[in-house]
Specification:
The complex is a heterodimer of chains A (about 375) and B (about 150). Chain A contains 21 helices and no strands. Chain A is mostly helical and about 375 residues long. The radius of gyration of chain A is 31 Å and the shape is elongated. Chain B is about 50% helix and about 15% strand. Chain B contains 7 helices and 5 strands. The relative contact order of chain B is 0.13. Chain B is globular, with a radius of gyration of 17 Å. Chain B has about 150 residues and is α/β, with parallel strands linked by helices. The chains are: A mainly alpha (about 375), B alpha/beta (about 150). At the A-B interface, helix 1 and helix 2 of A face helix 3 and helix 7 of B.
Chain lengths: ~375, ~150
């Protein structure tokens, strides 16, 4: 009997505790929801007042300085910052300054608050994109928390604060791959302004620094696509010893090199490392200069499948390249024939040949291609 | 033209009326009833608030929708002179709203607002019949000028 009583008592206690916890949870959620509803209501009111300021410069609605303490006011300012451009941004900058919004968030960022509150402050500063916060954001690029460093870089990118470019690049070698990739996104946002500092970073650090950071810097150069850095990047490529760096530079040259990069890239088509040959073929295709055609034609007979595939793909996009691929269907080398046929199929030539055949307008080249594909059982 | 210009014009016209104040009220009422009606459809509250404030200030009547479906239904009332549609909204997209209106014979001039500024979106919007395309974030005076251009007095 005693055992049964104890069991009932234990179940009762567990039930009571669960009920209390559940009620507590429901209460907390309700309080939070109501708090958010009130927050949204205040935000709507602030949006209205601030919109009148933007739409009607002589507007004289009084805004209590105490609103600076209200997160809803900050949210409204940030929302409007993301909505309007041009002279209205100056009006918002005046409001941000008058109500000390940057100072308040700066104090939070500097505080010993837990990460969540400091991170919210960093996000707010990044979203406000106010120039007055730039020195602070640069300072916190070396914060102990990676999320805060990322937000600081993002904010600096948003405001296109060019003195921050060097500071962000300086952090490149010290960051984890994840943070570095986010910094890279920011640098891409700076565009051509970041190209020369990145090139300088690669030039100085390719022998000493973490190669992954220099590789990332070169990738950013390719993404930015600033043509002026093509020739110096070609020169730098000749100095690289690490294959990863060479691969990144060859890839970047495809985007920024232009016709001047054809000669050095063609030289890499003879490299002993197949990865460099394959990447060079790709980049020559990106440049699209017919001068590269002979080297790419040789690439069709390369011992490595990737080099053959990339060479054929590159030829498909180069003026006169389709003719070379059609000719390669008669090559002695079986691999070259297959690579050419696959590239012709991939770039839509096979489909067009079929259409023309169905319409009774097939050319000799069309029939050759169709015949080759059927003969080699590459298509049914 | 700002509201100051409108009131100045009204006073001049109402000078012909015996009682100036009655004349002014009559004139404003007449103008309100003749005011052009602009539909603002955007899921962002900030965009809606800014546009409603600026358009009302400029003397337009404003209808507001927070998604594509509501915008489409408001256009069917036939009382909209110009629509500012967000490109990406919950429900129907801005260009889908245009396509449906056109299929049903509603010739509403539409300005597409979009945070996406790739060429394809712009070309698709204009091809489908939008009269203009404005990138977000937008310059308010410029957008208002485009609206005035489409809705001359």
């Amino acid at each position: 009997m005693n055992g049964t009583r104890i069991a009932f008592f234990a179940v009762g206690v567990v039930f009571a505790v669960d009920t209390v916890l559940l009620l507590g949870l429901i209460t907390l959620k309700t309080v939070h929801r109501r708090r958010m509803e009130r927050h949204d209501q205040r935000r709507s009111i602030y949006l209205g007042v601030l919109s009148r300021r933007l739409a009607f410069p002589l507007h004289t609605d009084y805004i209590d300085p105490e609103v600076a303490r209200d997160g809803a006011f900050l949210d409204a300012v940030i929302d409007l910052r993301n909505t309007v451009a041009g002279p209205e941004i100056d009006t918002l900058a005046g409001i941000i300054d008058r109500y000390g919004l940057v100072k308040r968030q700066a104090a939070r960022l500097r505080s010993r608050f837990p990460l969540g509150r400091r991170l919210r402050a960093a996000v707010s500063l990044a979203e406000m994109g106010d120039e007055s916060s730039a020195p602070l954001l640069i300072e916190f690029l070396s914060d102990r928390e990676p999320e805060i460093r990322i937000q600081c870089a993002r904010g600096l990118g948003r405001m296109q604060h060019t003195p921050a470019i060097d500071a962000i690049i300086e952090r490149f070698g010290k960051e984890s791959p994840w943070v570095r990739s986010r910094f890279a996104d920011t640098l891409v946002g700076f565009g051509a302004l970041a190209a020369w500092p990145l090139l300088a970073y690669a030039r100085v650090n390719h022998d000493y620094d973490d190669n992954a950071a220099v590789v990332e810097a070169i990738r950013v150069l390719g993404t930015i696509g600033e043509r002026d850095i093509g020739p110096p990047l070609s020169d730098l490529l000749a100095k690289f010893r690490n294959p990863e760096l060479k691969i990144a530079a060859i890839e970047a040259l495809g985007y920024v090199g232009g016709p001047l990069a054809v000669t050095p890239l063609v030289a890499y088509m003879q490299d002993h490392d197949w990865r460099l040959r394959a990447k060079a073929a790709n980049s020559l295709g990106e440049i699209g200069d017919p001068q590269a055609s002979p080297a790419l034609r040789l690439g069709l007979e390369d011992e490595n499948w990737w080099v053959r595939r990339n060479s054929a793909g590159a030829l498909a996009g180069i003026p006169g390249g389709l003719g070379i691929l059609h000719e390669a269907l008669h090559a002695d080398d079986q691999f070259a024939r297959d690579a050419a046929a696959e590239a012709l199929a991939d770039c839509g030539q096979l489909g067009k040949a079929r259409e023309r055949q169905e319409q009774g307008q097939a050319t000799a080249a069309d029939l050759e291609l169709l015949g080759f594909m059927i003969e080699d059982a590459l298509v049914p | 033209m700002g509201i100051g210009g409108r009131i100045g014009g009204s006073l001049g016209e109402s000078a012909r009326v015996t009682t100036p104040l009655v004349g002014l009220c009559y004139d404003i009422e007449t103008r309100m009833s003749q005011a052009k009606r602009v539909l603002v459809a955007d899921d962002s509250e900030a965009v809606r608030t800014v546009l409603v404030t600026a358009l009302t200030q400029a003397g337009y009547e404003v209808a507001v929708a927070i998604n594509g479906n509501d915008a489409y239904e408001m256009g069917q009332t036939g009382s909209i002179d110009l629509a500012l549609l967000d490109h990406l909204m919950p429900g129907l997209l801005g260009i889908e709203v245009i396509a449906r209106w056109q299929a049903e014979g509603y010739q509403i001039p539409v300005i597409i607002l979009s945070g996406v500024d790739d060429e394809r979106t712009i070309v698709d919007s204009l091809d489908l019949g939008a009269v203009d395309f404005v990138r977000k974030p937008f310059r308010l005076p410029e957008l208002m000028a485009r609206i005035r251009q489409r809705l001359p007095d």
